[in-house]
Amino acid sequence: MLRVGRGQLSTRTYVTSKSFTIGLIPGDGIGKEVIPVGRKVLEKIGPKYGVDFKYIDLQAGWQTFLDTGKALPDDTVEQLRNNCQGALFGAVQSPTTKVQGYSSPIVALRKALGLYANIRPVKSVDGTGDRPVDLVIARENTEDLYIKSERTYIDKETGGRVAEAIKRISEHATRNIANIALEIALQRLKEKGHATLTVTHKSNVLSQSDGLFREICKSVYQSNKKFANVQYNEQIVDSMVYRLFKEPQCFDVIVAPNLYGDILSDGAAALVGSLGVVPSVNVGPNIVIGEPCHGSAPDIVGQGIANPIATIRSAALLLEFLGLPEAARHIEKVVDENIRENKIKTPDLGGNSTGEQVANDILSRI
Ligand code: NAI
Ligand code: MG
């Protein structure tokens, strides 16, 4: 059940319980390095807020596929569905060419659990990035080109292959993502005195699919008076990229279909120094799953230099959406302190510390 609360991100699952079961899915690559840090953070913060976390270790990913023939075992889905209120997901490594029987488990998981929104706050702390950035990307999480309805056939005229993919935009999913984006904007309005929603689309070309996305976002905004003081904007996705890099301070809450949201959030990560610091949370009706925005980072795996901050911040987002905003703020504060003090940082932020040193510094501040 989603309700509006006092937290920075307003819309979250409210529960009265002080006991939560958290699924831990490291996945592949640096997911295995950062998810244990997420667990340590929860272990340390729980007792301070009278919250008891239980953990279930779960499998998914490329290695799981190689070992078992399934990238997303049924047991993982069932455990999350039946026994967990929250989870932390690391990253999975997906091959760039088609492998029979393999399909990205995080995409499948978002579908299986109805995780309709992926909320990605991108915020600079003094000393990172070159400009102040404070925005939230609300990425639709279940459809668009990610329904993976693809086919390849031979073109009769040219004899060459043609590959097609269906982009699906539905009124239902768009309404859901527009609603949560506007609730977040409303909360930011209360906190900062102003808030803007920017709807990202390409309806000048894709007049039906992106046209529907744009139309529904606007109608959700207009249909509820409570959103009246949130400013409403629209931006075509290509010029959105331009403006995001040229004047990121103009953006507040951005709502986007799945693919644009994915691309924009990795781009926005460059504005705050590294993909290694940008968190996300997948929000569904019955479970929330924190997930760093980055992938499995094969180029740095095993070197001990993966930045754990994106995962630590994802743990904070998880707590926020579980209805524990004070605990979430606590984690955010100590992460900001670590970044601001600028001494113990991993190479992606220009430092020479290990991920473990960063994790220990943050844990010691909790
Ligand atoms: P990536 O996000 O793994 O890496 C991009 C760049 O950012 C690399 O240079 C990497 O070293 C750096 N980076 C990422 N996270 C970092 C961290 N925590 N600390 C320091 N540096 C970090 O994206 P890439 O290389 O395109 O994809 C690698 C694999 O990850 C692919 O197989 C892809 O399918 C998968 N992937 C999985 C995702 C998921 O599970 N949700 C999301 C994105 C990619
Ligand atoms: Mg991505």
UniProtKB/TrEMBL annotation:
A Gene Ontology term for the protein's cellular component? mitochondrion
Q: Does the keyword Glycosyltransferase apply?
A: no
Q: Which InterPro entries match?
A: IsoCit/isopropylmalate_DH_CS (IPR019818), IsoPropMal-DH-like_dom (IPR024084)
PROSITE patterns with a match to the protein in the record: IDH_IMDH
The Isopropylmalate dehydrogenase-like domain covers which part of the protein? 21-362
Picking any one GO molecular function of the record gives:
homoisocitrate dehydrogenase activity
Keyword annotations of the record: Magnesium, Metal-binding
One Pfam match, by short name? Iso_dh
> In Gene Ontology terms, what is a biological process of this protein?
tricarboxylic acid cycle
**Keyword Cell membrane recorded:** no
What PANTHER family does this protein map onto?
Answer: DECARBOXYLATING DEHYDROGENASES-ISOCITRATE, ISOPROPYLMALATE, TARTRATE, HOMOISOCITRATE DEHYDROGENASE, MITOCHONDRIAL
Q: Which family does it belong to?
A: Belongs to the isocitrate and isopropylmalate dehydrogenases family.
Q: How is this protein named in the record?
A: Isopropylmalate dehydrogenase-like domain-containing protein
Q: Which organism is it from?
A: Eremothecium cymbalariae (strain CBS 270.75 / DBVPG 7215 / KCTC 17166 / NRRL Y-17582) (Yeast)
